[in-house]
Every structure is written in C-alpha cells, then in structure tokens.
Amino acid sequence: EDQVTQSPEALRLQEGESSSLNCSYTVSGLRGLFWYRQDPGKGPEFLFTLYSAGEEKEKERLKATLTKKESFLHITAPKPEDSATYLCAVRDNFNKFYFGSGTKLNVKP
Amino acid sequence: SQTIHQWPATLVQPVGSPLSLECTVEGTSNPNLYWYRQAAGRGLQLLFYSVGIGQISSEVPQNLSASRPQDRQFILSSKKLLLSDSGFYLCAWGRTRGGGLTVEQYFGPGTRLTVT
Predict the structure, then answer these.
(1) Which of B46, B100, B108 sits opposite A96 (nearest CB)?
(2) Cα–Cα distance between B7 and B20 in angstroms, integer?
(3) Which residues, in sequence order, are CB contacts of A18 under 8 Å at separation 6+?
(4) Judging by DSSP bridges, how do beta strands A84-91 and A33-38 pair with one another?
(5) Contact A89, A24 (CB under 8 A)
C-alpha cells in the first residue's frame, strides 16, 4: 500500500538553530513529491514540487531535496514565523495525492 | 491571479441532516479539483478528485458524494451525516502541465464541520 511517513512528529527549535524534516515514501509510479506549510485553522500553502532524485528547490530559509525513497526539508536559521506544520505529499500516475501526517515545527525566540 | 473560495467556513449539523459544501475557483480554466478531509492532528485524506465537468473519482467509500456542475465549481454533499463525518474539509485546485497531471496544488481556507 502506498504510504508517506513524516518525522519527527514535532520539532522544537531555538531561533537560528537549523534542522531538517524528513518525508519517506513507498509509492509505485511516483510522479512528484510536494511540500506544504499549514498554519492552524487554515488550508495548506503550497511550497515546492520535486520530480527526480537529486533535485533541489529553495525558498527563503527553506530548501527541499529528493532522493529515491525520501525527501528532506532543510530549515536554515529559522525564525519564529516559520512555526507551522509542514506536510509532504506524493502524487501517483493517476493524479492521486497521498499525504503524510506532518511535522509540527515550533521555533522559539 | 487565481483564488479559491470555500463556504461556509464553519458548520454545525445534527446527525442525519444533509450537507452541501461548495468550492469555486477563479482565474483559471479546466483545473483539476480535489476534496480532502483532515482529522485533528492528522494528514489529509483524499475524498474525491475531478479532471473535468461531470468526471468524479471517489477514493473513500462512504456516505459522501461530489459533483462538478461547472468547470470551476466543486460540491461535496451528503444525504445523512454521521458523527464520523466531523472534520476539516479542504478543497484544492491543481495547476496542470502537459498530460493533465497536477504540478502545483493550491488549497482553499477550509470548512470546519462538527456533527452533533
């Protein structure tokens, strides 16, 4: 069965303390890995799409990377406003999306 | 620019009552459309998706149904709500590129449904 697993479930960082979030997947016919940011009570905000192993994308303090079985979201020198839940999802050949449960990030000033 | 609307924002309904949630997208044509449900503290569960008017794929057998009467309108319905239908319902549209696959996905603000 297709699965997406995110770790850790929760992460507490001090402002400026860099770290990485992990998203591992077992999906046949992977056609894209997606990262989102979700604030409490709101819909997810699209961040990145990655398609092939070795691909990297950056946006401000965030950088997403992809290998054959997992993706990492690196957060460099985070600020309190980066606190949110980060979700990853994979899309298969049939346009179906499978989401992980997310990593709740809390950045303390 | 594209925008996506959902309403209502919150809804409290008794068990056994009907449901209709609406989603509309502006600023794009022929988008892929999705309905998701998110339980508290959990990821998103895909309920339905549509690649065009009248074309609906159901992912989870349940008492919910979806319809796409117009290109940019997606409706989630139920004839009789269950307690287990409570949750945060999210609509999303997908930007496509060559072949109709979604390359980016944008979510609406969501509807918080409580079934009592």
Answers:
(1) B46
(2) 9
(3) A74, A75, A76, A77, A78
(4) antiparallel
(5) no
Nearest CB among B49, B101, B109 relative to A43 is that of B109
A12 φ/ψ angles, rounded to the nearest 5 degrees: -115, 125
CB of B23 closer than 8 Å to CB of B73: yes
Residues in chain B within 8 Å Cβ distance of A43: 90, 92, 107-110
H/E segment holding residue A41: none
Residue B78: pLDDT above 80? yes
Low-confidence ranges of chain A (pLDDT < 50): none
- Give me the pLDDT at residue A29, please: 67
For chain A, give the number of residues: 109
Residue range B2-25: mean pLDDT, rounded = 96
pLDDT at B41 over 80: no
Is B105 at the interface with chain A, CB within 8 A? yes
Smallest Cβ distance to A95: which of B32, B109, B112?
A: B32
